[in-house]
Specification:
alpha/beta; D-Maltodextrin-Binding Protein, domain 2; 5-stranded mixed sheet; 7 helices; 10 strands; elongated; binds 2-phosphoglycolic acid
Length: 213
């Protein structure tokens, strides 16, 4: 506490994030650690299911998720938009179409994330709500693998727009104009109710809210 009063925040900060948050959380953490060099940060990147297991076991200070869990007692604070977009290779027949129906989009071979992924859960729910089947061409275990498979012409997909940031080959992927898209979501920072946050965790929480992403 004395160290805190002196502005010398020292100690550990353990964060678990879902895979898509890896496109922006590490750089925020970098800025934070430069500002507070005494912080020893660890960042665990995993899918939603694994992140929720860690949350239930109370292993980390903070979690960054695409949606707070419904069945765990948590504090959650939205801090950033997380639009999900429909993707295809640039030379796809639907690339220049406007206002594509979800039904038409659902006919395309689809590249889906692995079981346990939050992105997959949102996609499944969307198709279920519209009474549509996903025409699954392939299941892939990461956003990167999905992007490369889209570029390779294996199918279409739905990913967070954050997954396209800093993508050197982004021009080979296009965002389709599908009705109801982008799916508007947010990023949440989450922690178990009753967890006594360290001063470092609280400072990072404030920092997340104040940062220009
Ligand atoms: P995922 O999570 O990396 O497990 O797909 C992303 C999300 O929940 O939005």
């Amino acid at each position: 506490m004395v160290a805190d009063l002196q502005g010398l925040k020292k100690g550990k900060l353990r964060i678990t994030i879902v895979t898509t948050a890896k496109y922006f959380v590490p750089s925020l953490l970098g800025t934070f650690c430069k500002r507070f060099p005494g912080v020893e940060a660890s960042l665990n990147v995993t899918n939603r299911e694994q992140a929720l297991i860690r949350l239930e076991e109370n292993l980390d200070d903070l979690y960054v998720l695409g949606q707070p869990p419904e069945d765990l007692h948590v504090e959650s604070q939205p801090f950033l938009d997380n639009p999900l977009v429909a993707l295809a290779p640039v030379d796809h027949p639907l690339a220049d179409e406007k206002n594509i129906t979800l039904e038409r989009f659902s006919e395309e071979p689809f590249l889906v994330r692995e079981a346990g992924s939050g992105t997959r859960k949102v996609v499944k729910r969307l198709f279920d709500e519209h009474g549509l089947e996903l025409n699954v061409r392939m299941e892939l275990g990461s956003n990167e693998a999905i992007k490369q498979a889209v570029i390779g012409g294996l199918g279409v997909s739905i990913l967070s727009r954050h997954a396209l940031h800093h993508e050197p080959r982004a021009t080979k992927i296009c965002i389709l104009d599908v009705q109801g898209f982008p799916i508007l979501r947010q990023w949440y920072v989450v922690y178990p109710v009753g967890r006594q946050l360290t001063i470092i965790a609280r400072t990072f929480l404030e920092f997340l809210h104040q940062s220009e992403h």
